[in-house]
Structures are given as C-alpha cells and as structure tokens.
Design brief:
It is built from six helices and eleven strands. Belongs to the P-Pant transferase superfamily. Gsp/Sfp/HetI/AcpT family.
C-alpha cells in the first residue's frame, strides 16, 4: 500500500514590509498598487512571499527566482491555481482577515481555505450554500452556534473546490460534507463536476476563524507550522 502523502501547512500573519515586498515580481507589484485597502495589500504581499520562501527552500531555489504561473487545468486559460513549473510539488494558498495559509504536498493536489467566523446572521446565506441535509442540521442548531457552523461548512467545501481547481462554476449545494462536531469528510458530490476521493481535515487558524484542507486521494498526513513572519524558517 502506498504511503499517505504528507501535506505541510504554513500559517503566517499578513504583513506588508520591505522584505516581503522585495519578493514580488513586476506584475504583482502593479497589482498590489491597484489595491486600495492596506489589508488587501498585506494579504497579497504575504501570500506571494510565503509561496516563494517555502517553495524556494523545498527546491533549493533562491526565493526571488521562484516563478509563479497560472494555467487552468480545465480550459488551459491563464487563471486558476498558481503553480511553479518543474517544482515537483503542488500547493494551495488562502487568506482571510489577518491570516494567510499555504498548503504544500508532493504527488497529490491540495486545497486550503480559511474564513473568519461571520459576525452577522447567516440565515439568508445558508440556503444558498448548504445542501438539503446540511441545511436541516444547521436549522436544528441553537442560534449562537450557527455562525461558526456556517464557516465550517463553507471552508470544507471551498477546500474541496480548490483541490480540483474549481470555483464559482460549481454550486456549493452540490457538495455535502459532514457537519460541525464531526470529523471532516466529503459525504456526496453531485452534478457534472463531481470529483473524489478526498482526505478532508479541519485546520487550526485560531479564535474567530475556521479553516479546512482537502487533499486529493483517500488519505494524507497533515503537519501545521505557525510562523511569526512569512520569511521565517518554518
């Protein structure tokens, strides 16, 4: 039996300082300048710096020389998950609030997501996101548990979609996952984009956040590392 792939997960605070900005290429610097909010600039800068730092260490390449390309696995267009040509590893990046997370595997495709627990009622959002069985379970929860439950459902589904490089083309109601309080698992994926199998995990972003990781295949081992800065040696 093949050994389960290891997925390494790096967490970093979102920062925007000269050291991280030095790792952006010309296109990324131009994109950063177009962002009006400081928090958005910090998340973009940190994400690119974290990818180049981690992949650079794995491949023995100076971070500034790590190229990031985009190519959709489904239509071949210049969008979709970023990748490093010839690196031999697959990765997924997500950010929300003050958190940035990078998941890296060899030989399996990962998808990672992090979201703040909503600070507002999710009653109107839940029917658009939750499958029928999920919505019944959600409705049975006391009000004070629904915001976090919604974030758990959302991140588990987003992680699955990111693992296969799909986004808004797939209605989230086509995907059924296990509910909060149960081990993360894909229960059913309906529709023309159905995929699987996946190993699905909840992550540990810290108070006020939910996070999830999906890895294509039936099993995986997860290692999480928490950095104080995206350029730290994790």
């Amino acid at each position: 039996m093949a050994e389960a792939p290891v997925c390494r997960v790096w967490w970093s605070p979102a920062v925007d300082d000269p050291a991280t900005r030095a790792l952006l290429d010309a296109d990324e610097r131009a994109r950063r300048e177009r962002l009006h909010q400081a928090a958005d600039r910090a998340r973009l800068t940190t994400g690119r710096a974290l990818i180049r730092t981690v992949i650079g260490r794995i491949t023995g390449t100076p971070p500034r020389r790590v190229p990031l390309h985009r190519r959709c696995r489904h239509c071949g267009g210049p969008h979709g998950k970023p990748f490093v040509p010839g690196a031999g590893v697959r990765f997924s990046l997500a950010h929300a609030g003050g958190r940035v997370v990078l998941a890296v595997t060899e030989g399996a495709e990962p998808g990672v997501d992090v979201e703040p627990v909503p600070g507002r009622s999710v009653r109107r959002l839940a029917p658009r996101v939750l499958a029928e069985d999920e919505y019944r379970a959600f409705q049975a929860l006391p009000d004070h548990r629904r915001d976090r439950a919604y974030a758990v459902y959302w991140t588990r589904k987003e992680a699955l979609l990111k693992a296969v490089g799909l986004g808004i083309v797939v209605p989230k109601r086509d995907i059924t996952v296990s509910g909060p309080g149960r081990s993360a698992a894909l229960v059913e994926w309906r529709g023309p984009y159905a995929a699987g199998p996946f190993a699905l995990f909840d992550l540990e972003p810290g108070p006020g956040y939910a996070g999830a990781l999906a890895v294509c295949g039936r099993s995986a081992r997860v290692e999480q590392r928490f950095l104080e800065h995206p350029l730290d040696d994790g």
